[in-house]
Amino acid sequence: xxxxxxxxxxxxxxxxxxxxxxxxxxxxxxxxxxxxxxxxxxxxxxxxxxxxxxxxxxxxxxxxxxxxxxxxxxxxxxxxxxxxxxxxxxxxxxxxxxxxxxxxxxxxxxxxxxxxxxxxxxxxxxxxxxxxxxxxxxxxxxxxxxxxxxxxxxxxxxxxxxxxxxxxxxxxxxxxxxxxxxxxxxxxxxxxxxxxxxxxxxxxxxxxxxxxxxxxxxxxxxxxxxxxxxxxxxxxxxxxxxxxxxxxxxxxxxxxxxxxxxxxxxxxxxxxxxxxxxxxxxxxxxxxxxxxxxxxxxxxxxxxxxxxxxxxxxxxxxxxxxxxxxxxxxxxxxxxxxxxxxxxxxxxxxxxxxxxxxxxxxxxxxxxxxxxxxxxxxxxxxxxxxxxxxxxxxxxxxxxxxxxxxxxxxxxxxxxxxxxxxxxxxxxxxxxxxxxxxxxxxxxxxxxxxxxxxxxxxxxxxxxxxxxxxxxxxxxxxxxxxxxxxxxxxxxxxxxxxxxxxxxxxxxxxxxxxxxxxxxxxxxxxxxxxxxxxxxxxxxxxxxxxxxxxxxxxxxxxxxxxxxxxxxxxxxxxxxxxxxxxxxxxxxxxxxxxxxxxxxxxxxxxxxxxxxxxxxxxxxxxxxxxxxxxxxxxxxxxxxxxxxxxxxxxxxxxxxxxxxxxxxxxxxxxxxxxxxxxxxxxxxxxxxxxxxxxxxxxxxxxxxxxxxxxxxxxxxxxxxxxxxxxxxxxxxxxxxxxxxxxxxxxxxxxxxxxxxxxxxxxxxxxxxxxxxxxxxxxxxxxxxxxxxxxxxxxxxxxxxxxxxxxxxxxxxxxxxxxxxxxxxxxxxxxxxxxxxxxxxxxxxxxxxxxxxxxxxxxxxxxxxxxxxxxx
Length: 871
Hints:
CATH class of the largest domain: Mainly Alpha
Shape: globular
Strand order of the largest sheet: 1-7-8-9-10-16-14-13-12
Low-confidence stretches: 1-22, 849-871
CATH architecture of the largest domain: Alpha/alpha barrel
CATH topology of the largest domain: Glycosyltransferase
Distance between the termini: 44 Å
Radius of gyration: 29 Å
Strand content: 25-35%
Structural class: alpha+beta
Mean pLDDT: 93
C-alpha cells in the first residue's frame, strides 16, 4: 500500500509542478573533446568543475561544495532519487556509476534499473555561479531531491554574521544572505516544488532541500536545470546572475568549451609515441589555466590550488600566492600563455610592500579585514621576492615584452634592494632570519640556527643575474652592481653549500658557519638555474642522490631522503613526495645530461594526472606508498608545473636567449627517451614567433623540420645523443634561420646504447619498487650503468646495443636477436635497496637496419594508455 501511495504522490507532484516546456533547457550537443577522461565513479575521488569566478569542488559520487569567489555558497550538495518501487529515496552516491571529466564540464552518471541521470556540472568560464544540468531518461515517474547546506560565508579568516535563508516561490529558489544584505546567493530550479517552510531569520539546523518531479514525458523535453549563483553586490545582482544562468545555459557551455579549445589549440601542444603523455600535457595546461581566478574585490590572479574546504572556509589553497605564481610561470611561459603570466605579475606588483618585499599569500577574504596588518602570513616567505625578479626576467625573455620590463623596473629595484638588505653577514646571500622562510616552513628542517637555506641562496643568486639582465635592457648603470652581486652570490653558494669531500650539496648554512648535510631535493633548483660550479664533485654526488631511491620514488621526489634520521613519510617538510619538487629533480638531471633518471621522474609525475583526481596532480603524496596524504590539496598548480616545466625546460631543453640579444635564437635540446622515435611540438611560442617543430630519428639519422607561422626568427636544435652515439662530421646542432617556409635538416647518425626498463603501471597503494638508473657512461669499449633495485627483485631491461657484445656482467641475457637485447638483472644484498653496475663490453659497431629507432617502440613501457575519448 505504501508503494502505491508513493507512486501517486510522485504523479500528483508532477502535476502540481509549474513545468512548462520553457522551464527545461533544450538538449544541446556537447562539443567533442579529444581529452575527455572517462571511467567508473570512485566515491572518494576528487572531482571539479571550475571557472574564473566560481567552482564546484566535490567527489565522483556527485556531492560537492559551491564557491562563488570569495563566498562559500553551500556545502553538502547531493541528489537522491525516489521511484515508485521504493519507499525511501535512493542516495545518488549509491547510484554513481561513471564519470566524464572535461575542462568545460564534469559529468556524473547515476544508473538505476528504472532510469539513468547524467548530472552535468557546468561552471561557466566567466560567470559568478554554475549549473547542474540533469539529463534524465526514465521509464517511471521520478522524484529528484536536491539537498545542501547554505553558507554564504567569505573565505577564511574573514567572517560575516547573521546568515539566513528563505524560499522564494517566484524564482523557485532558496535565497541566502547575511545581516548587512550586501551578500546573497540563490540555489534553485524552475522545476522545483515548494518545500516546507524553514526558520526565517537564520539558517536551519537540517539541510535545505527541494524536490523536482519528473515524469517520463517531462524528461524527454530537455535538461532539468539546478542553478547556483551569488554576488557581493546584494540580492538583486545575485538574482540577475541566477536568471542569466538559466536563460543562457547552452551559449555559456559553448563559450566555456571555446575557451578550453583555445587552451588546447592555440597554446603549445605535443605529439609523442605515448598518447598517455600527450594527454597529461593537455591536462597540465587546463590545470594551470583553472588556477587563474577573478575576485570581484581584489582582481584577477593565480591561486595555488583547489580542493574541498570541508568544515573550514578555504578551498584547498584557493588564495593568491606570490611564490607559487612565479614558479608556475616557468611552465606557462614555456607553453606560451604569456597573457596569464603578465596579468599575474601585475596583480602581485600591486601588493609589493613599501620596502620592496613581495607578497607570499593573500586570502580571498582580504577585502573584509586588515589582512596585511593583522595577520602574519602576507609576507612571511623570504624566497618570494627573489623569485619575482627572476620571473619578470623569464617572462620578458619568453614574450619579448620589453615594455613591461621598463614599466616594472622601479619595482625590480625595490625588490632587489629589499633582498640585498637581508644579508646580515655580508656573504652576498639572503639570510633566512631576516628574509623569512625558504625551503622549509615546518618540521625538523626548520631550525633556528639556519642562516641561509639552499633554496633561498640559489633563488637570490639567480635573481641577481636576472636583475643584471633587466638593468642592461632598460639602460640603467645599476647593471654593474647587479653583476658584481651575482658573482659574489655564486662564489658564496659554492663555498657555503658544496661539500666535495662528502659529494653532496648542503641543505643549509648555519649561523655557526657549518653546513647542514641533510639529503634533500632542494639543491636541484640551484643546479638547474646554474648557480653552482657543476664540475665540482659535490654536484656530481648530488645528481647521484637525486637519482637514487633515497630521494626518488616511482611517483616523485621526497622532500627529504628516506635515509635521513628525521625522515617521516607523511610529514609536510620531512619526507612527503612533492610533485613540484620532482620538477626540480627532473630539471637538474636533464640540465646535466642524465636523461634516464630525469625521465623516470617525468614519467611518474605524468601518471599522477590520472591516478587520483582525474586531470589534476595533488599537492603531496606519502613518501612510502603511492597515495596522497589526507591533508593534501587535490588540484595543486605547482604540482602540475613540476611536470610541465620538467618536460618543456628539461626533456625538450627549451632555452630563451638573454635579454638584449637581438640576434639570439630560441634553443631546444631534446633528450628523447629511448622508446621515442619522434616528438612534435606545435605552436612553440617565443616572442612573436610560433614554431612547429618535428623531430624524428631512426638507426641511421636524425631529422628536424621547423615551420614558423609567426614572425620569422631563428631556432637552434641542439643534438643530445646517448652514450656511444655519433653524428656525421661531429654535428652537434641544427640551425634554422629566420624564415617562414618549412625547413628540414637531416644529419646521419650512428646510434648509441640505450636502456628501457620494463615497468608495471603505477598503482595506488604500492611502495616504490622500480629500478633506478643513476648514471650511464661509455668509453668506446665499455658501457656502464649504475643501478639500484629492491633487494630480492629481478628486473627486465631492454637494451639497444649497436655493437658486438663481448661480455655482460651484472645481468643475464635472456633474449638476443635482431631487436633489442633483453636483460634480466637481479638484486641481492643486505639493504632494502641494492646498488649494482650493469657492464657491457663491446667490440666493433654493427649495422642496424630498419626505420625503427634503436629497436624500441612506445609499447615496451608495458603501460596501457589511460582512457581518453572523443564523444
